[in-house]
């Protein structure tokens, strides 16, 4: 297929219809396209005849398609032949780091959280011997679904013909440069990058983040220096892999929606994590604690007032002593009463202590009304104890699962039958999900009993059985999924099952 034949409206693999030409560079063209079978937007790279690295790009794309970390761009298809060579990948919507820095540096903790997510995702890619090698602010995206995405792993390096003998070190340095940019709004390179000015220099070396921007915490300055500023390390060890960068940033807060409990309903129910904190702060400031009215006592009457107050205090103390003595005497005369008093709180305490989190033996995507599987390859990410990873359903064209099925979900195998106290599922922050909790001793939909339902669910959702429920299998079942960036899918960041003991 010649370059002139690749025009808007061209269909590839009889399903991907090219819509809009996004960019073109050195014979590679990026398109926004539509997957006509799944009715979703996708990104498609096509290549002009004679593009020298088509084989390398397609090979890299096929390798990247096996990555399961949801923070890395998904590759859906790749083909190489004389008529048309192309790579089809996930269409990501959101704001790149370049966009986020348009109005200046980010809050240090937010910049660190974004890069921490990227570092952890790249560490997973490195485990599969796949590298990025050209990290730039445009490759790090905060999506409209409030997640981090790293674009172009393996594929971009092949497209631009980049190779290195130290891929882990190159990616660690790239992460350090992204952190530098987030903290300062400058790019630690000889030229501007993505509209960011080059970082200032002193004595021929780049200034550290703290020398450029006030308020950068010392530990983040140190992480940046260790990752990408060798001249300023002063004896500190270098961070030479994405995994080491991830470990260095392990304690920073991750930029994901976290539900916040309010004593009263906040004004904006769907506010993001940051907005929610801000609302709570403003509410607290808007209602100052009541102040006692001022007492204006004439000075000449002060001694009389003090004597009266002292007399009242003495009388109250005498009354308290009398009541205490009467209570002790009554207790000594009725030995069974204290015993009953001791029993009640201990029973309550033991009941609450017995309900403990139980780790599932396995998790899988559950689609008995469709093709039997719903992204089982990433199901374990919903039970790995990490708030930054997630499982999500396939994308659908409507909230009712495109009218293709009545439900889809995540199935947990607890290993043995047990009583279920409750299940806490951290969903995406977009409202609109209808979620059912089903429990049973067989992994068959008809055998699983619905014990709790939550409508318009979002964020941290607790599903508590209306009556005692027990079983080996626990199913979080979506019957409606919320909208997200023009698509509809259910998202679960983490699931925790609580049980008072085996059934």
UniProtKB/TrEMBL annotation:
Residues 332-371 are annotated as: Disordered. The keyword Plastid does not apply. Residues 343-355 have a biased composition (Low complexity). InterPro entries: Galactose-bd-like_sf, Kinase-like_dom_sf. Gene3D superfamilies: Galactose-binding domain-like, Phosphorylase Kinase, domain 1, Transferase(Phosphotransferase) domain 1. The chain crosses the membrane at residues 308-328. It comes from the Bacteria. Keywords: Kinase, Membrane, Serine/threonine-protein kinase, Transferase, Transmembrane, Transmembrane helix. One of its GO terms (molecular function) is protein serine/threonine kinase activity. This is Serine/threonine protein kinase. It comes from Nonomuraea deserti.
């Amino acid at each position: 297929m010649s370059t002139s034949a690749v025009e808007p409206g061209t269909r590839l693999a009889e399903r991907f219809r090219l819509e809009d030409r996004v960019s073109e560079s050195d014979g590679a063209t990026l398109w926004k396209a539509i997957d006509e079978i799944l009715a979703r937007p996708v990104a498609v790279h096509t290549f002009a005849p004679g593009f020298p690295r088509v084989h390398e790009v397609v090979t890299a794309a096929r390798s990247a398609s096996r990555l399961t970390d949801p923070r890395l761009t998904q590759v859906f298809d790749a083909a190489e032949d004389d008529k048309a060579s192309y790579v089809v990948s996930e269409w990501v919507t959101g704001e790149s780091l370049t966009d986020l820095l348009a109005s200046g540096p980010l809050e240090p903790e937010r910049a660190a959280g974004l890069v921490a997510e990227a570092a952890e995702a790249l560490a997973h890619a490195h485990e599969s011997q796949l590298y990025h090698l050209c990290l730039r602010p445009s490759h790090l995206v905060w999506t409209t679904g409030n997640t981090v995405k790293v674009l172009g792993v393996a594929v971009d390096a092949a497209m631009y013909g980049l190779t290195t003998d130290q891929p882990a070190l190159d990616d660690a340095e790239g992460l350090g440069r992204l952190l530098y940019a987030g903290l300062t709004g400058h790019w630690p390179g000889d030229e501007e990058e993505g509209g960011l000015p080059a970082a200032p220099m002193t004595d021929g070396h780049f200034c550290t983040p703290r020398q450029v921007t006030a308020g950068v915490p010392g530990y983040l300055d140190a992480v940046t220096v260790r990752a990408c500023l060798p001249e300023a390390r002063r004896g500190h060890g270098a961070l030479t892999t994405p995994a080491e960068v991830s470990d260095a940033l392990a304690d920073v807060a991750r930029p994901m929606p976290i539900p916040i409990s309010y004593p009263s309903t906040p004004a904006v129910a769907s506010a993001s994590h940051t907005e929610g904190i801000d609302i709570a702060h403003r509410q607290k400031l808007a209602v100052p604690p009541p102040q006692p009215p001022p007492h204006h006592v004439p000075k000449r009457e002060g001694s009389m007032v003090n004597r009266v107050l002292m007399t009242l205090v003495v009388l109250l103390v005498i009354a308290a002593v009398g009541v205490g003595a009467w209570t002790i005497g009554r207790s000594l005369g009725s030995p069974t009463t204290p015993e009953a008093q001791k029993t009640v709180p201990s029973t309550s305490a033991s009941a609450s202590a017995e309900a403990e989190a139980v780790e599932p033996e396995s998790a899988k995507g559950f689609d008995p009304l469709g093709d039997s599987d719903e992204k089982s390859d990433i199901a374990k990410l919903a039970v790995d104890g990490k708030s930054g990873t997630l499982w999500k359903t396939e994308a659908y064209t409507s909230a009712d699962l495109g009218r293709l099925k009545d439900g889809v979900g995540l199935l947990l195998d607890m290993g043995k039958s047990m009583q279920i106290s409750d299940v806490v599922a951290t969903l995406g922050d977009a409202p609109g999900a209808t979620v059912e909790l089903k429990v049973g001793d067989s992994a068959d939909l008809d055998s699983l009993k619905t014990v709790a339902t939550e409508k318009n669910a979002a964020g941290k959702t607790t599903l508590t059985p209306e009556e005692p429920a027990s079983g080996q299998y626990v199913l979080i079942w979506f019957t409606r999924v919320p909208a997200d960036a023009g698509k509809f899918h259910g998202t679960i960041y983490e699931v925790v099952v609580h049980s008072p003991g085996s059934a």
